[in-house]
Write a structure and sequence with these properties.
The structure holds two protein chains of two kinds.
Chain A lengths: L1 H40 L2 E2 L7 E2 L3 H7 L2 H17 L2 H12 L6 H13 L2 H11 L6 H8 L14 H26 L3 H9 L4 H12 L1 H16 L3 H6 L11 H9 L7 H31 L2
Chain B lengths: L10 H18 L1 H9 L4 H5 L12 H11 L2 H32 L5 H13 L3 H13 L6 H25 L4 H8 L4 H12 L1 H16 L3 H6 L8 H11 L4 H21 L1 H12 L2
Classes of the chains: A mainly alpha, B mainly alpha.
């Protein structure tokens, strides 16, 4: 009896270890350790093949004087701020589609479409949309005898043009989060609100939005991450140009590490560390909230 | 329901809504409609600048067979399949087990391991780029679909563990307790009791991971090069460089590349939509 109890006890303390081991080892190997390796590499001068030379914080010192770094950082801030527009836009479309007319399910799926397709395709489509000679944008501007403007060739407009393209799938993402959120809203509270004569904006503000808080929280998290991960569209639409004016940190890092003038892995890693630290702020906020939710459980 | 159901509004409002709906949809999908139309245009239309008018001829078969016969698009597509399918299977296998362990067992460091997965899932790819590329080179699997798939499995495991753990936590605990009283072994509890109940979560994650991996562009450019191993996202980008201003071919290629995730999404849209919000919180 006691022997079997001991074996049960052993089994129950051993089981989680065995179930966790493959995932944890794999994740450590490919995700957790590389973070620390990157931090270490950022203290070296390394072309990716030969010997590494320790240079201390030289890469970071160089970064402080690098104009391209500040351009990228500034563009990251613009991305972060403007990308947030996807949240109200997604809410707006979700409210528009939250009806039960015939064929609504198909409409919802079609509105979600931009999120399912690759950013490479989104990038190609919008490059073409902005094309100064034949692009639809300039055709439309032509109707009002405006233009032509080469959005992607203009240092002032290029970042906004790329962000606009990015907002298309991101809005679709936020929309779907809100559609599922709206389904979970308590109908009794809405009826109670209606009896109290709450309508339109007041109803949204005081009854609906508080109940949509979980959806809004996820929408903010995925949008912030999307904005900081903005690599694909920049790479496809402009490759950072013209003259580096549309670079973001994620792209600049890649460019430096795999530059045609020689690989600078250490310098690239230093840029990545800065990006990582910015992201850490959000990760920490997320974890703290999650920890509180778990404790309150 | 909010906003007020349209059936309760006046007939005029209802009519307005039903007209606005298709109109809004066309506007929203305008870029895609344009791509679809362009993918059947002739080269003549493209040189004449007829991008937005009605096509002078419909070259559906010509354009689509052209991209498959004269470019390696077919092998790019096959590479994408060879990366995506093993990633979906591998990720699900790992995260079903880790999610189960984190949801069912109380042990020291449970929360810590869980938070490691969550935090790792959010890091910018660039902080991993240099070491992961180096690791892949050293293992001799740089520029192979295996190298790409292995990394994807590891990275997606973070997100999927979070998802699975929250899903299992919402299942009734009594089931497990009852089985333990009966003396059922732990791995049998996992295999015969929990796993069958996880079917909806597995379906949702399969669709999500398929879409994420199929559409991945960054890791494809970092870990592969050339038509023998590059997936279609990176392939499309290099083809775009070769097809200067051949927009009808670029468009046809884009449509082909977008098709598999779109098809999967439509086939399993219920799971897909159910999966998204479950992912981050419960």
């Amino acid at each position: 009896m006691s022997a079997s109890r001991a074996s049960r006890f052993n089994q129950r303390s051993l089981a989680p270890v065995l179930f966790l081991a493959p995932a944890v080892l794999f994740f450590m190997f490919y995700v957790i350790f590389p973070i620390f390796q990157s931090i270490q590499i950022s203290l070296y001068d390394w072309d990716g093949l030969g010997a590494k030379t320790y240079v201390g914080i030289d890469n970071y010192v160089e970064l402080m004087d690098d104009e391209a770094f500040y351009t990228s950082l500034k563009n990251n801030v613009i991305w972060l701020v403007l990308y947030m527009l996807a949240i109200p836009a997604g809410l707006f479309i979700a409210l528009f589609l939250n009806q039960t007319v015939f064929g609504m399910r198909l409409y919802k799926s079609l509105f979600f479409f931009p999120f399912v397709i690759s950013q490479v395709v989104v990038g190609l489509v919008f490059t073409w949309f902005y094309d100064p000679s034949y692009g639809l944008l300039n055709v439309i501007l032509g109707w009002f005898s405006l233009g032509p403007v080469a959005i992607l060739g203009d240092e002032t407009w290029v970042t906004y043009g790329i962000i606009f393209a990015g907002l298309w799938p991101q809005t679709a993402y936020c929309m779907i989060l809100y559609i599922t959120g709206l389904n979970a809203v308590d109908p009794e509270q809405i009826e109670a609100g209606r009896l109290d004569n709450a309508k339109g904006w007041n109803m949204l503000r005081y009854i609906i939005l508080p109940q949509l808080k979980p959806a809004t929280f996820i929408a903010i998290v995925v949008t912030v991450i999307g904005a900081l991960r903005s690599f694909d569209l920049v790479s496809i639409m402009t490759a950072g140009g013209p003259w580096g004016s549309s670079r973001v940190l994620a792209y600049y890092m890649y460019e430096k590490a795999f530059s045609e003038y020689g690989f600078r892995m250490g310098y690239g890693a230093a840029i990545a560390v800065v990006l990582f630290l910015i992201m850490m702020i959000y990760i920490t906020v997320f974890l703290v909230k999650m920890y509180r939710d778990e404790k309150g459980h | 329901m909010f906003p007020t159901p349209i059936e309760r509004r006046s007939a005029a409002v209802q009519r307005l809504y039903k007209t606005a709906l298709p109109f809004a949809m066309v506007l929203w999908l305008l870029p895609l409609i344009a791509v679809a139309l362009t993918s059947v245009r002739s080269a003549g239309d493209i040189t004449a600048g007829n991008y937005w008018g009605w096509p002078t001829s419909f070259n559906l078969v010509e354009n689509y067979s052209d991209i498959f016969t004269n470019t390696p698009l077919g092998s790019y597509m096959w590479n994408s399949v060879r990366v995506t399918v093993p990633t979906v299977i591998g990720t699900l296998a790992l995260s079903c087990m880790s999610g189960f362990a984190l949801a069912v067992y109380k042990f020291k460091g449970n929360m810590l391991v869980f938070f490691m997965f969550v935090a790792g899932n959010f890091v910018p790819f660039q902080i991993l780029m240099v070491p992961v590329r180096d690791l892949t080179l050293q293992m001799g699997i740089y520029n192979t679909v295996t190298g790409l798939a292995l990394f994807h499995i590891a990275f997606q495991t973070g997100f999927c563990t979070l998802f699975m753990r929250n899903f299992i936590r919402a299942l009734p605990v009594e089931l497990i307790e009852a089985a333990r009283v009966e003396g059922v072994k732990e791995w049998r509890i996992f295999w015969f009791i929990i796993l069958p109940l996880m079917r909806p979560a597995i379906a949702a994650l399969a669709v999500l991971v398929f879409t994420f991996i199929w559409n991945d562009y960054f890791w494809a450019t970092v870990l592969t090069q050339g038509a023998e191993s590059q997936p279609v996202t990176a392939g499309l980008y290099s083809l775009n460089g070769q097809w200067v201003a051949a927009w009808h071919l670029v468009s046809a290629g884009s449509i082909v590349a977008a098709l598999p995730p779109v098809a999967i999404f439509f086939l399993l849209q219920k799971h897909f939509i159910a999966g998204l919000p479950l992912g981050a919180v419960k």
